[in-house]
């Protein structure tokens, strides 16, 4: 095999190509001579084995990238030992780029690249070569694989794939503080030459920053960089290949560096003295002014806490910090009074809340200012001497009685006169009036403690010069009690007296009530009326504890003889003067249950509770029984099937004759024919009533007489006849 190469870049490749060409021109020797093996046989002879010769062994070829010549670039030459130079061998090529990028001369075996190659896109190509007999197309050499490597040239500049960059570094940082590391990439072959060897340098940003030429780390180069003086910096970093030598390619990127804030500036008030006007009518707890200290720092480094450091101002005012605006909000703690104090002086201090000890050498991070507050005079409403007035007056006092008085004054220096009024919206104006000039409150009518013991009214005061300014004060009036109500027995219920009561037995204990109010408790005395004769049935005992006991004076009461008794009782209260009242109790006699524990009438209790007497209850029960009897009789008659009562067109009642003559006794038989009574058989004929229509009649089966119709007259039972007619009459009603 013989391999030829068109050109070489480095001296080593030039020498190698020269040796290959010289060696290939003088000798056609295969790349490897086959070895000979000998085997000694049993008869002593030696057998020689021949291994077939290999006509070629392929190594890799090289081709330069980025070739832009007009002719195809020569890559190398393929040659087989079987090629005698007579054109009988045909070379063929297949694989990556065969026929498109790489072409081969079938006779000579020369390989050319027809296109410009880019190593950064593809570094090598794998191809297969074969030598054939041109006439028989038989393979003279087995197919063999070889590689064509694309040789790199410095055709790619370094790039920063992540640029541009943004970085931050604290202000006042020391020299050499790391800011950011940038890294450039080069698409050239890092294993061949210096094409991919990068060196970093700074093009813009000096003298504030520097860059490490090998690592690309950017560091601060200037001490005490102040954010308040300059906050933003633009740094340009260059990356150059070929180790920074002349002719190397370069690329650059931009880094925007911002200095972050630290607390290196104390708060400062723009001025040392301030003035503020506050009217005396300002409300307590409301803001009356603002003050602000400036801090050049940012965020929490600029937070300020305000305080009032002198007692004169701290007693009357308070200050807080508005987190959004960082202003000190001054508020009122106590009411202002122009007449008492017209000016206040406040010493206000502003302090940073987040202090970095590393920068304490810069000084104290606080500042003070003086605020002078002037109190403005305002026309104020009258002020009452008390916040709440409490008065009292006795009940039943005549109209116009003085209850008490209220006082108010003008707090202003003018001391304007004051007028008083009652709130007309309240109910108290019905019972009281007030003197406009003096503020004295009087009654308009007698008051009744038992009706309303307390009255709540509102008094208003206004200045004569400015009636629109009103002030209000509540006034409570207590109505004091006088003994104007007589006592009375507490119970209105009947007192039960058992029939089995014995003389001296306590029937019931009673108490009294009084609408009046006694400061030391109510005291009552009891007695029977002295102007009445002695009660023979009952007496009264005063227990001297505001109770009295009713006691029986005789034995055995009987409710049938007398059921109700009345007992008048006189009650005295303990007031001044003492009042008395007479109450009459009703005592009811009734049989009591056994053991005498529950004094309750057995039968009468139910009637009395229902409100009915015994006679009324009996009448109701009798009516119920009669109604039940009628219903039962009606149902019985409906079920029975009887003959109709009317059996003839003529009514037997037509035989009754009315006349004014006196009857003649048994001998008088002309007025009424009683033969029907003696002979029932004669009335059995079919007759109909004239007052009933035939179609509306109801048939009723009548009971027949047990006797035969042929019985004689004197044998007829008149009683049975009448009974039968009664049944017929009932049937006809049905």
Automatic annotation (TrEMBL):
Entry's transmembrane regions? 616-637
- Specify where it is mainly localized: membrane
The entry's cellular-component GO terms read: adherens junction; catenin complex
Give an example GO biological process. cell migration
Q: How does the entry describe its membrane topology?
A: Single-pass type I membrane protein
User: What does the UniProt entry say about where the protein is found?
Assistant: Cell membrane
Q: Name one GO molecular function term.
A: beta-catenin binding
Segment forming the signal sequence: 1-24
| UniProt keyword annotations, A-Z | Calcium, Cell adhesion, Cell membrane, Glycoprotein, Membrane, Metal-binding, Repeat, Signal, Transmembrane, Transmembrane helix
Q: Which domain of life is it from?
A: Eukaryota
Q: Domain Cadherin, which positions?
A: 80-160, 161-269, 270-384, 385-489, 489-606
Concerning Pfam families, the annotation shows: Cadherin
- The name this protein carries in UniProt is Cadherin-12
Species the sequence originates in: Sparus aurata (Gilthead sea bream)
Q: What is the lineage of its organism?
A: Eukaryota, Metazoa, Chordata, Craniata, Vertebrata
Supply the gene name: CDH18
